[in-house]
Amino acid sequence: MMSRSLLVLVSGALALLVSPVFAAGNERVVLSPHRAVYDLKLDTSKPSRSVDAARGRIAFDFTGDACDGYSLSFRQVTVIESAETGSRQIDVRTSNFEDGEAKLFRFKTQSAVGGRMDDRVDGVAEQRDGGYRVQLNQPKRDRYDFASDVIFPSEHLKRIVTAARRGETTLNVKVYDGSDDGKQVYDTFAVMGRKIEPGPLEGLEDAVRKPDMQRLARWPVSISYFKAGSGEVTPSYAISFDLFENGVTRALVLDYKDFRMTGALVRLDLMPASACAK
Q1: pLDDT computed for residue 5 by the predictor
Q2: CA 103, CA 11: separation in Å to the nearest integer?
């Protein structure tokens, strides 16, 4: 059976999908602050012995700009049905802030199982002395450092988009997103598919079929996450999605090892972007 912590990990990974995006060179890609809702259902194409049914919803609110930084409020509620353990509802809430220079990252996650609070993670990571220092407030007060080759979620996504624009098909970097117990760094392997040029969005979800979205290119992207230094060849978790140039995503696939869920975009509200000149 999938653990609560794994669901939190994948939720944390989803948070990076709405981070700032900039193109290679001097061309600027406009990031769209937005609210989005996804309906989740079990992917029946992947057999599972431990999950008989699953459904859920993801909602997030993304605001900010490249000058002052970006804030994300994210919630995922998932109901899992199993003949072995019965029905469980897992509620994960995440909020984070990443500054415009990708040097500071504040994060807070709390999760509840069946309405009962399970875990909390609260801390801040900041660049200093050629590396990064993490100060944790929860689950307990702690402090530790990690190497300078680790990047935060927004920088990760920027590199994915930059690589995709250059026609590159893979990207391998270490990422810290504050998930799990706040101490884990992940080796990530991203695969970017062929660019889909701007144009009519026929056949896609109604929520994404907006004039502003039709003017944007997009790429199919999949990302696998491995615990850094573990030597594992099977990822801890994986996600895939269609990524638009403005940071909006659709066609989610969340792979929890034991089973997969798909996420359809059912609501998208694009909000006005600020006049940040960065």
Answers
A1: 46
A2: 22
